[in-house]
Design goal:
Blueprint lengths: L19 E7 L2 E2 L3 E3 L11 H4 L3 E3 L2 E5 L5 E4 L1 H14 L7 H14 L12 E11 L10 E11 L10 E5 L16 H16 L4 E5 L7 E4 L2 E7 L3 E5 L8 H13 L3 E5 L9 E8 L3 E10 L2 E4 L8 H14 L10 E3 L2
Parallel strand pairs: 9-10, 9-16, 13-14
Antiparallel strand pairs: 1-2, 1-3, 1-8, 4-7, 5-6, 5-7, 6-18, 7-8, 10-11, 11-12, 12-13, 12-15, 15-16, 16-17
Bound molecules: pyridoxal-5'-phosphate and 2-OXO-4-methylpentanoic acid.
């Protein structure tokens, strides 16, 4: 089947694909799950996901390689993280094999939506787990749904490897001992207003500081932060209230094992940004987005350049991209073939 999709110019917008996976948890167990065509869910008006935010989600991608095969990048890490998120909001685990099998089924059933090799586009998978069923007290739902849908996507931040500017937010997205480490919808609800303020001021998004002292960089609304110091170290914030990004941990490995760099997870002080020669945002959707500058207290701190990607960021990007699309050999276990 041929689709009328301009693969090279895709952004990050919803496109309805043909099939999605749905599985129900009831009376302590998951059913076998199935692929369905309908992209609407019918759930109780009293579902905990709707009222008390009892839900979590994931994001991962399928990549078309040069030889036409299709592969996933570290889906086991997404499976582990959805279960850490689920436990934080009292939802049942999705067994790792079930998670990966559901992702593979959805990719295979929507194979013609997997963008061609060389277009730069990918098939984004969105697994999610929600509390459903009749309930009104603030307590866990009686039933849960685990679903996976997919859509072809291009860059999350316009321009891909073109630098973007961010602004430091006065708001917090998560609290110490809160749910920042979990990929739950409430964190994203908290980020909508600060994001809109940032965009209205001409920035791609905002960067959050640590909620306790507002002195340390935490992360972007949908990606982690990293900086390259002037003496070539890969630095990324360590905090219990940011999402442990699978891309970030992959880049730490690439920086040390492929590029021979020193790597540190530690505090990044917003008043010491001049320690960095380059900076970037990283995540599944964002891939690596170079940060041109960060606006704080009335001033724009520019890193490498507002228009061009820095040399180390480019090397990190090329290696990650190469592994994901099958052109560079990845570490053992990072690539899972779908077909
Ligand atoms: N931080 C936030 C808040 C995110 O939503 C994401 C996206 O998943 C990331 C970081 C990056 O995480 P990952 O690299 O696992 O996609
Ligand atoms: C991802 O990178 O997968 C994300 O979840 C970011 C986002 C679009 C919320």
């Amino acid at each position: 089947m041929s689709l009328n999709i301009d693969w090279e110019n895709l952004g990050f917008s919803y496109i309805k694909t043909d099939y999605r996976y749905i599985s129900k948890w009831k009376d302590g167990q998951w059913d076998n799950g199935e692929l369905v065509k309908d992209n609407n869910l019918t759930i109780s008006e009293a579902s905990t996901a709707l009222h008390y935010g009892q839900q979590c989600f994931e994001g991962l991608k399928a990549y078309r390689t040069k030889d036409g095969s299709i592969q996933l990048f570290r889906p086991d890490e997404n499976a582990k993280r959805i279960n850490r998120s689920a436990r934080r909001v009292l939802m049942p685990d999705v067994p790792e094999e079930k998670f990966i099998d559901a992702c593979k089924q959805v990719v295979k059933a929507n194979e013609h939506f997997v963008p061609p090799y060389g277009s730069g586009a990918t098939l984004y998978l969105r697994p999610f787990l929600i509390g459903v069923g009749d309930n009104i007290g603030v307590k866990p739902a009686p039933e849960f749904l685990f679903c996976v849908f997919c859509l072809p996507v291009g860059p999350y931040f316009k321009g891909g490897l073109t630098p973007v500017n961010f602004i430091i937010s006065e708001y917090d997205r998560a609290a110490p001992y809160g749910t920042g480490e979990a990929k739950v919808g409430g964190n994203y609800a908290a980020s909508l207003y600060p994001h809109e303020l940032a965009v209205k001021q001409g920035f791609a998004d905002c960067i959050y500081l640590d909620p306790a002292t507002h002195t340390k960089i935490e992360e972007v609304g949908a990606a982690n932060f990293f900086g390259i110091t002037k003496d070539n170290k890969f630095i990324t914030p360590q905090s219990p209230s940011i999402l442990p990004s699978i891309t970030k941990y992959s880049l730490m490995h690439i920086a040390s094992e492929y590029l021979g760099m020193e790597v540190e997870e530690r505090d990044v002080l917003v008043d010491h940004l001049d320690e960095f020669a380059e900076a970037g945002a990283c995540g599944t959707a964002a891939v690596i987005t170079p940060i041109g500058g960060i606006h704080h207290k009335g001033k724009l701190h520019v890193f490498h350049s507002e228009t061009e990607v820095g040399p180390v960021t480019k090397k990190l990007y090329d290696t990650l991209y190469g592994i994901q699309f099958g052109d560079v050999k990845g570490p053992e276990g990072w690539i899972v073939k779908v077909k």
